[in-house]
Amino acid sequence: MGSWEELRGLLLGHRVSAAIAAAVQLGLVDLLAAQPRTADDLAEAADTYIEGQEYFAAAATLEKMGKLDKAADYYLQSGDYKKAANVYIAAKKPAKAAQLFLEKGNSLEAARLFGVAEQWDKAAELYNKGGYPLRAAEAYQKKEEWGKAAECYEKHFMENVSFSTQYSATTPSAYS
Q1: In this structure, which of 79, 90, 126, 148 has its CB flanked by the most CB atoms within 10 Å?
Q2: Where are the domains of the chain?
Q3: CA-CA distance, 126 to 113, in Å (whole number)?
């Protein structure tokens, strides 16, 4: 025992404690702790993580390599959709990030990211359904859908006016 391949085999077999014990016994702790330094080392590390189904580690390694789409896929496989969305944003793919947030039920963040992606129709629809008529109106304006924008501005205005009218109707007037 003592080669990288043998240690890799133990690690892939999820026998981490056996690999560490063997490395310590043979004085190879530095081999286990060594960080990949070249692109080939990173690629080999990513492959090792994928083979061992360590998807988060694989994704982080792929992200270091600049392979952002693959990194996002492996972050998703690891169950971390927020990290995957952040990688899509870094890759200048906000619409993909928006779709992830939408699938997970965060329609407000999805709407914001659809706006970043200049997909104003999707942003407006989500803002409108989510109860944000002012933001919906702004998105409709960017899409040049003036009628829908006007409806949303009116809805926003009516919600705010009805609240202030209701409030003033229940407050004693200083002029009575």
Answers
A1: 126
A2: 1-34, 38-92, 94-170
A3: 11
Tell me the CA distances in angstroms from 173 to 10, 54, 112, 168, one per residue in order: 80, 68, 42, 8
Rounded Cα distance, 83 and 73, in Å: 10
Q: Are 61 and 46 in contact (CB under 8 A)?
A: yes
DSSP one-letter code for 2 = -
Q: What average pLDDT does range 97-105 have in this prediction?
A: 96
Q: Kindly tell me the burial class for residue 102, based on how many C-beta atoms sit within 10 Å of its own C-beta (0-12, 13-18, 19 or more).
A: middle
Between 35 and 9, whose confidence is greater? 9
**Tokens of residue 69, six digits:** 């789409």
Residue, of 87 and 52, whose pLDDT is higher: 87
CB contact at 8 A, 51 and 12: yes
Say what the pLDDT of residue 87 is: 96
